[in-house]
Amino acid sequence: VVEVNRRSVLIGSSFTGALMLTKASRATGPAIIRGLPDFVVVGAGAFGGWAALCLRERGAKVVLVDLYGPGNARASSGDESRLIRASYGAHVAYSELAVRAVRLWLSRQDEMGRGMIYLNGSLRVLSEEKIAAQKPIFDKLGLKYQILTSGEVHQRWPQVSYDDVAQVFYEPQSGIVKARESMIGVAELFRRKGGLVRIGRAQITGGRGRKLESLIVDGAALSGGSFLVACGPWLPKVVPRVMGDKVYTPRVELAYIGSPPDDRRYRWELCPNLTDDDGFTAADLDYGTKVGAKIPEQNGPSIDPDRLERIPTIKHLNAAKAYVEKRLPGLAGQPVVATRICQAEFSNNGHYIIDRHPDYENVLLAGGGSGHGFKMGPVLGEYLADRLALGKVDPILDPLFSLASHGPVGENNTYI
Ligand SMILES: Cc1cc2nc3c(=O)[nH]c(=O)nc-3n(C[C@H](O)[C@H](O)[C@H](O)COP(=O)(O)OP(=O)(O)OC[C@H]3O[C@@H](n4cnc5c(N)ncnc54)[C@H](O)[C@@H]3O)c2cc1C
Fold first, then answer.
1. Does the pLDDT of residue 22 top 80, yes or no?
2. Which of 374, 375, 379, 383 to mutate to test the pocket of ligand 1 (most atoms within 8 A of CB)?
3. Which residues, 6 or more positions from 324, have their beta carbon under 8 angstroms from its beta carbon?
């Protein structure tokens, strides 16, 4: 067992905070289990934040390092909300993960005492083939669904318009998860259970060798027994030799359209989420109806998440308004009340990337959320913690997420 180097943890501006947290955590955290290594987790997003919490809950000593802090504005997990659904076409492994994720979100929100998941259901325009692939998986997993005509949609949700579509797939057990607030909640719970959160920039500077002994955080060494590097769209910057060509980080714009002051029909209690090929909405959770309209510019080059100017474009705002006018015509003319400029972190084939660093047996890399990573946070946390702390092997997921199964990103990327 390699001790997390207390001296290096306490160096710098977080000295007092770290000391206080360590004292407080002795009273509240789970007992540290001898024999488990100490962990340093880099990145407090959906992958790293949940993994740090689950590692701590398994009795490990854990330091979570984030460059800008949990739920920060640049992180892919820093938006207001993300969608959660179990429909994944023929990808049954992800449907199974999503089913467990819903259960975990519900129990975690009870534990944290804050609203994190809103099961308002979703309507998706799917091809006949996709619906045919979906049905047996939903039947097998005991998930409810309905195929609705546009008339049935209109009768049930008069504010929703699918007049141009023959049928829509309705998934009642899907919904919305709060993103930024959840990541703050996860970090708070991690602290309460005895974990240590540090703000700082981690760098892997060691040469190649069997084991990595320490990272450099803001110029000082931070040692640990094992490391999880979960930097989302920063992975190509932090681990360039291994991840430089494995993650595509295009700019993505989102707009939030305000509900009329006396009209509750667009709130999550009364409105499902909508998804088409050219856009999607998430119902109003006090922040407006979120719209992600797809425009060609979103397939632009990879951006640098540190440097991107997050200013919305008129072109996207107009596309968002047009999508909302098509599907939720009562929102026509309503104001944009907030915007978010994010970046995605797509792998070449849409599957997550989770694997050992080829140079170090004690470093695990995790990311490549590919537009569907956030919802799985609680379940990915369990998977990562069991893999790291207990050496658990998953014969289906490990190969699916492996570096070997991912090619370089490029023109032929596929999305799930
Ligand atoms: C527009 C959009 C819509 C999406 N919709 C959905 C959806 O509906 N459902 C869904 O499940 N998923 C969705 N996703 C995907 C999901 O949001 C991401 O896959 C997920 O949030 C990625 O989490 P992460 O932990 O890998 O990365 P991040 O959340 O980006 O976290 C990485 C963290 O690493 C930190 N960091 C970076 N470099 C360093 C360093 N050197 N040292 C220390 N810390 C560092 C950063 O500060 C950051 O906090 C969407 C993504 C986008 C962009």
1. no
2. 374
3. 257, 281, 289, 291, 331, 332, 334
